[in-house]
Amino acid sequence: MSDHIILYNFIFKKTIYVIIVQLISICCFSQEIEKKVFYYPDNKIMSEGFMYNGKPNGYWKTYYPNGNLKSEGNRKSFVLDSIWTFYNSDSSVKEKITYVNGKKDGLSHSFLNDKIHIETPFKSNIISGTLKEYFTNETLKKELNYLNGELHGDGYEYDKDGNIITIYKYKSGVLNKRLVINRFNMYDKKQGIWISFYPDKVFKSKGFYNDGLKDGYFRFFGPDGKLLYIEKYINGVLDKKNREVSKIKTSKEFYPNMSVKRKSNLINGNLDGIQREYDERGIVKKSFVYENGILIQEGGIIDDNGLKNGFWKYYKNDKLNSCGNYVNGQKQGIWKYYYPNGVLEQEENFLDGKLDGEKIWYYRDSKLLRKENYKNGKRHGLFIEYNTMGIISVSGNYTSGLKSGKWESSINDYTEIYNYQYGLKHGEYLNINKDGKVLLKKEYKDDTLDGKFEYYHANGNIKEKGEYMRGNRYGNWIFYNEDGLEIISVFYEGGLERSYNDINIFK
């Protein structure tokens, strides 16, 4: 009997304990999470959502003064997560941005008249992949490729019929070439260079039109990009007298033992395409690339798959433009690039086709412009930039392509100091004059003003101070004259002024 009583008492006490714990949890939960609504001065809702321990979390909405929705989306663990939608004041969709752990990650879209205008691929807040721009009829207008946040590689512009009308060539954010093609003159006749393409954008044909008529040489290519044949036109008429040049001719030179010494392609008597030189064993020892009889590349070996090996030189307007080594088609080791006057412009190192190690830039007068470091194709390590006087103007560090830690830049008589985390401004910012006096001090969190803000007069006395919360002024702000005496205090809520010197201006 006593055993039953003991068991009963144990179960009863255990049940009471569980109930108490649950009540405490519910009580605490109700204190930690609350629905919060912020208002405009006219009492219209400005924003609404959930707060957890004083911080926004969960689903949030913001509104325009006219009452229309401005933005909506979810926060997870206090940071932006999943798809956030932003609206114009007329309720039309402005943007849809995908977030993962507070960072843009995946496809983001901007809209025009409720139709997709620009599609941008992000990876951890960095544009990476193909950015696409569309016409209002939703046909493709432009494609641009990004690598680690910089324009890199081929880009294309289209007309409304889907024809490519401009080709761009970018390298590390710099436009190296812009080719305008497939255009019409004022009389709606074909004019200039016209190029047709295979589905994978390999050239199919290339030639020149003058007032709608073919003029000059037209080249035709196979799906692998190799030249098949050419045709010559004069005022739109095929020149049959020069029919013999409509096919590629192969020229060969031989050693005394009749093994091939040199093999070249000739078009209209001019060297064009790849020329190879062989040793007496038939092994390629050197290769050249010509265009219309002009040497544009020379170096080691181009194998049957088109892959380069050995040391290569590139020419532009008969002047050396760049040089370096290839291994199985990939850049390897030190590469150098030159200005048209022959002065060294860049020097960089590659490992298996990717930038790795130090990259150095020079001004046209050979003075040092920039030093930066790469690892596995991404900026990694110390970055330093110099002005024309040889003084450091920008310095900081990258980690896997993203700015990190302390960054310092000097412009005229002022120095700015930023702190970065994962490529975003995070931490204290300082603006300092030439005398070492702090003019501005503020704090960032994930690229947004958040924390203390202090602004100083030129004499060093405080001018204004307060705090930001998520990009908006928040709480009590105090403003001072040059003597350091308080002029006025303003209380902010949600970035809006609520009171002056503790007097509520919106009762």
UniProtKB/TrEMBL annotation:
Among InterPro entries, the record links this protein to: MORN_2
Determine the domain of life of the protein's source: Bacteria
Kindly give the Pfam families that the UniProt entry links to this protein: MORN_2
Name under which the protein is recorded: Uncharacterized protein
Protein source organism: Ichthyobacterium seriolicida
- Native organism taxonomy: Bacteria, Pseudomonadati, Bacteroidota, Flavobacteriia, Flavobacteriales
